[in-house]
Amino acid sequence: MMTTETYRIIPLNSTFDRNSFDCDSEPLTHYFRHFVTQDIKRKLTNCFILTNTTHQIIGYYTLSAHSICLSDLPQQMKKKLPRYPTIPSIKMGRLAVNQPFRGQGFGGVLLIDALKRAANSEIGAYALLVDAKDDNAVRFYQHYGFISLLDKTDTLFYPLLNFKTV
Ligand SMILES: CC(C)(COP(=O)(O)OP(=O)(O)OC[C@H]1O[C@@H](n2cnc3c(N)ncnc32)[C@H](O)[C@@H]1OP(=O)(O)O)[C@@H](O)C(=O)NCCC(=O)NCCS
Q1: Buried/exposed code over 92-105 (b: 16+ C-beta within 10 A; e: otherwise)
Q2: I need a surface site. Which of 49, 84, 97, 160 has the fewest CB within 10 A?
């Protein structure tokens, strides 16, 4: 459980030691240690970290502009949308929690923050989209109400209209 310690979610900056980050997914660890800053510099993504008072990185997620093919959305959602071939969205390309902090609610905190950030964006976006790396990750996103795209069970989305910001 998160305690009374102060936590912040902020854009990643160079004062943090990314090499101390290790989640159980080698690609997600490697990307964060070695490639995320290059993608940020090229404006391909933005990365947000959850950190504590001792400057540790508890977890991270990345957000980028994206689009969903209208034909990939379930019928009941498609019928409420205009017939544009693609629907604007925001993609959370990666989400991971540092191993020692797993199972303490931090993944959920990061996911809700990403939804809030996407829902509050001044740029129009219909949904937050995620790629789940395995069935376990699919269940994690389903736990929060994410829905799979048609025929693409590993890609899930959450309509931002449904997300109530507080
Ligand atoms: C997936 C991940 C981000 C979850 O983070 P976490 O901090 O361990 O999870 P939390 O403790 O925040 O769990 C929050 C809630 O989700 C639930 N949950 C966590 N993992 C779950 C799973 N695999 N299936 C279903 N529910 C899950 C928890 O039970 C908890 O529910 P509650 O709030 O109702 O009690 C983390 O395990 C991780 O970094 N995994 C490796 C990378 C990864 O798989 N990323 C996913 C995107 S590809």
Answers
A1: bbbbbbbeebeeee
A2: 84
